[in-house]
Amino acid sequence: MNKIFNLFFIIILCSGCSFNKNSKFWTSEKIKEIKEKKFEKIFSNKEALSKELNTKINLNLSPIIKTNKLSKELTNNDGRVNFNGSLKKSSKYKFSKIENFYQFEPVISFNNKNIIFFDDKGTILQFDKNSKLIWKKNYYSKSEKKLNPILQFANNNKFLVVVDNLSKYYILNLENGDLIWSKNNSAPFNSQIKIYKDRFFVIDFTNTLRCFSIKNGKELWNFQTEMALIRSQKRLSMAIIDDVIYFNNSLGDISAVNVNDGALIWQLPTRSNVVYESNFSLETSDIIADENNLFFSNNKNQFFSVDIKSGSFNWENTVNSNLRPTLIENFLISISLEGYLVVIDRITGNIIKVTDIFDNFNPKKRDKITPTGFIVGLKNIYLSTNIGKLLVIDIKSGKTISTLKIDNDKISRPVVMNDNLYLVKENAIIKLN
């Protein structure tokens, strides 16, 4: 009888310790309480933006691109890139078709002027600037190749770190593709990779952040967050500032841990238990960071600013987007899943301007069009879509000025390197100058 009573007591106790916005979470370092009075709500409703705002306001950015003191690789903030090309196709890097490409977010890795990508069998390819293949390597068995592994890359100009959705992680010599070591994790990976000093970080499908040694692949520590029974294919992200790594999980929680030992500093839920069921389809944007704050949004009509020291909300507003935002000066730029360009004040979270960038599309087809990523150049914003169109948007007016057809299906988020713009589709990389 006592055993039954004790079991019942434990169940009651555990069910009261939820990770919602009003819960309390105890760590060895501090007791953190999330107070609603610190949560400034810019809009009271939760409806997605569906109309323009202040369209006559011109966004005037400094003509000089200011150097970001923080690493773009570690903070995910691309800022304003030095690109104003004519968008003429100059090269195409071909590879065998990646099945279900639309479900994933693979990214190109760059080695000086060379580019590194993979094909549908997990073969890693390095091309030079003229599309000539330098080397190709495959370290998968016949049975693994049939599973069409999806790879994620990061490099430190000497080693190429590779993780995949089959639970493998390994390191190659960047120059010749030779395998240095290879290991297996207990779960597949689906996140960015961050290289920091002599280690790298990646998140697996159990919502566990893992820290590995670059030298030999040994796991140095891990930090487990709450698991989800079902999760989307949306890639998870992380940012590193001053020896602290900030990362999200598939439930929308943001955690801050010490990069040296994995000790928890703070943890912040962004989705309450009331909406727990909708977390199964939650897709959060990449986290971007400045010296003091984290910024991110999700497809549940929430855009957040979080103080990196205290882990408290600065503000929240209603922007429905799973795309990586960009911070330039005091402006946060985002594009909603409904096709609206949104400019936000970094300090207050107030929405300054909203323009409809999908207004040139047929209204009957518009609902089937979604943005897949964007970058901000010198004069224009370049936005890719799931229908193979690249939109060129004037920064000042916020209006679409031209549309370039790349493919009929999804194209990746644009990336600029060496004065060229790159886009990935299911069987090729397109280089535009």
What's the topology here?
Layout: H1 2-15, E1 24-26, E2 31-33, H2 72-75, E3 89-94, E4 109-111, E5 114-118, E6 124-127, E7 133-137, H3 142-145, E8 151-155, E9 159-164, E10 168-173, E11 179-184, E12 194-196, E13 199-203, E14 208-213, E15 219-224, E16 238-241, E17 244-248, E18 254-258, E19 264-268, E20 288-289, E21 293-298, E22 302-307, E23 313-317, E24 326-328, E25 331-335, E26 340-345, E27 351-356, H4 363-366, E28 371-376, E29 380-385, E30 389-394, E31 400-405, E32 415-417, E33 420-425, E34 428-432
Antiparallel strand pairs: 1-2, 3-34, 4-5, 5-6, 6-7, 8-9, 9-10, 10-11, 12-13, 13-14, 14-15, 16-17, 17-18, 18-19, 20-21, 21-22, 22-23, 24-25, 25-26, 26-27, 28-29, 29-30, 30-31, 32-33, 33-34
Which features does this protein show?
433 residues, mainly beta, 4-stranded antiparallel β-sheet, 34 strands
CATH architecture: 7 Propeller
The CATH topology label is Methylamine Dehydrogenase, Chain H
CATH superfamily: YVTN repeat-like/Quinoprotein amine dehydrogenase
Sequence stretches where pLDDT stays below 50 over 5 or more residues = 1-45
How is the biggest beta sheet arranged?
A: 4 strands, antiparallel
Distance from first to last alpha carbon: 76 Å
**CATH class annotation:** Mainly Beta
Tell me what portion of residues adopts beta-strand conformation: 35-45%
DSSP summary: helix tally: 4
User: Using DSSP, what is the number of strands?
Assistant: 34
How many domains comprise the coordinates? Answer: 1
